[in-house]
Amino acid sequence: MGYAPQAVIDHAALRHNLQQVRHSAPASRIWSVIKADAYGHGIERVAGALLNTDGFAVARIDEALNLRQGGFDHPIMIMGGCYTQEVLMLAARNDFEVTVHDNQQLSLFDALSPGTHLAVWLKVDTGMHRLGFPLDHIDQIIDRLRAHPYVKQLNLMTHLANADDRGDSATQTQLAHFDSLPLHAFSQCSIANSAGVLGFRESHRDWVRPGIMLYGVSPFVGSSADDEGLQPVMTLRSRVIAVRQCQQGDRIGYGGAYECPEAMPVVVVAAGYGDGYPRHAVEGTPVLVEGRRLPLIGRVSMDMITLDARDYPSVKVGDEVVLWGRGLPVEEVAKKAGTIGYELLCGVTSRVNFIDQNVDEDKEI
Ligand SMILES: Cc1ncc(COP(=O)(O)O)c(C=O)c1O
């Protein structure tokens, strides 16, 4: 269609990144984390490319149901657990595995209908202080769940708070807390997110739970996807829609935030915050035009951004633009916008057209 942003999703890169998880944690099974519409990539297309995973992990029941209804019969874990009786019953009927992170969730088990059986992941708080039972009363909780007639399998999990910094001792403290628990009481254990998979071998256990690395983004501060052997999955691309010859002193865009220091070509690209390009991207944020890095100038508008084209004076309408992805890591753009790659990927809006690439090797389910 017209010149508008497209998100190209590379299925070969998804498959490659899953292989990287296997390579890094060869003795563990893999919960591929595909919550939040697979970090903005589209839950069904991503699940279809990751059929070799051992299971899918999502945050909420709706995401889990979406997968089952899409025909995926893998194990599915609801990492946020269930908050009402009705939802817990629905989880049991669909054979979902559920986390239990507090007494309110635990109490729902007492009123289940006879014959219900669920695999449960008891979530402990080893230091993140978000979800999870505190360590001090955990023995009673374990006893209660082990004796429960409706719990068919009891597993243990925790979540790492600081593993994105390889040098932070908080991760070792969390692992030590986890290992102080009676692990023999559990069928299976899980700790590692992407940063755990790549940076902390001791965190691997029976199952790992990678998310961001599957999408080809480094989980670490200060290392790139390339350094970690990952390939970007989403390339957000668009086109040049205007080239202006501006004069010295001309002010560009809303608020006149950028003033041309000399006569110069200014490029207008069809992409803005209405598509998910971050409005807070600062002047100088790189954008690729036909493979050349040009700096963002002026404010990001809803449908457009403007670039300084002095380094590419022959730029023309229709030239291809990459906002992030192949050749321009989303981490780099995110940093310039004061955020993280996760947020940019999740924030691509519904008016962007998604295009699948390299789907041939995905197997039919
Ligand atoms: C409980 C849990 N496990 C695993 C993950 C995956 O984390 P990451 O995307 O950093 O690999 C998340 C994501 O936030 C999570 O909430």
Count of individual beta strands: 18
Give the low-pLDDT segments: none
User: Which radius of gyration do the C-alpha atoms yield?
Assistant: 23 Å
What would you say the CATH architecture of the largest domain is?
Alpha-Beta Barrel
Strand content: 15-25%
Multimerization state: single chain
How does this structure look, described?
There is one protein chain. The protein is an alpha/beta fold and about 375 residues long. It has 2 domains: about 10-215, Alanine racemase (TIM Barrel, Alpha-Beta Barrel); about 235-355, Lyase, Ornithine Decarboxylase, Chain A, domain 1. Helix content is about 25%, strand content about 25%. Strands 8-7-6-5-4-3-2-9 form an 8-stranded parallel beta sheet. A 6-stranded antiparallel β-barrel has the order 10-13-16-15-14-17. Helix 8 links the parallel strand 7 and strand 8 (about 190). Pyridoxal-5'-phosphate binds near residues 79, 193 and 212.
